[in-house]
Amino acid sequence: MTKADKVTFVIDTLKRLYPQIPIPLDHKDPYTLLIAVLMSAQSTDVKVNQITPLLFEVADNPYDMIKLSVEEIREIIKPVGLSPMKAKGIHGLSHILIDKYNGRVPESIEELEQLPAVGHKTASVVVAQAFNIPAFPVDTHIHRLMYRWNLTNGKNVVQTEKDAKRLFPKDLWNELHLQIIWYGRQYSPARGWDLNKDIITATIGRKSVLKEYYKGKK
Fold first, then answer.
1. Are residues 183 and 206 in the same domain?
2. Distance CA 136, CA 179 (A)
3. Are 142 and 164 in contact (CB under 8 A)?
4. How many domains, in total, are found in the chain?
5. Assessment of whether the complete model's pTM goes beyond 0.85
6. Nearest CA-CA partner of 72 in 47, 57, 55
7. N or C: which end of the chain has fewer CB within 10 A?
């Protein structure tokens, strides 16, 4: 199977499995999405979705958010982990959004990356999911699967993102990155991986990965 055939197989399989693609993080607008994605770093979407309603009940826009102290924000979001850094980032970026953008979230990755506690992946998720601008945010699931499928060398997420953007059609990036995340969680997890359920890796998987899997099963 050529690389082009593999890419087509991945796209077709994911489309069949996920014709409707749910957004993992609950939000109602670009600002609440930005905050939710920032909070999701080294946490789970489930945990974030439990905590964001408590925060957004008090402050769901930058103007209300800056009325809270960093300590008050930290106290609310403490269960998601890394709360001191995240609270400082949320408070700081809310000030910048008011001072520089009239309270609105900017629509470019470059401007978003200038905000406190907002990295490339967070910025990519926001432009893709809030503004429908093509981006390919790479999380641990996508990084793992692209390597398992032999579509990247897996050295780092920067390379994985470049390879994903090179291989997949631009008009599919936004839905594909979500489809791969859901697939990774359901069929190709890091732990408790069952290759019998993972049709994509079983079909196009990197030989060394498959060899390692079967060796571990002996």
1. yes
2. 12
3. yes
4. 2
5. yes
6. 55
7. C
Which residues contact residue 107 at a Cβ distance below 8 angstroms, ignoring those fewer than 6 apart? 127, 131, 133
3 state SS of 172 = helix
**Is residue 4 over pLDDT 80?**
yes
186-215: average pLDDT:
96
Query: What is the spatial distance between Cα 79 and Cα 37, in angstroms, rounded to a whole number?
Result: 15
Domain final residue, candidates 131, 156, 179:
131
Residues whose CB falls within 8 Å of the CB of residue 76, separated by 6 or more in sequence, listed in order: 51, 54, 55, 58
Q: Say yes or no: 112 and 202 in one domain.
A: no
Task: List residues with catalytic annotation.
Answer: 121, 139
pLDDT of res. 217: 79
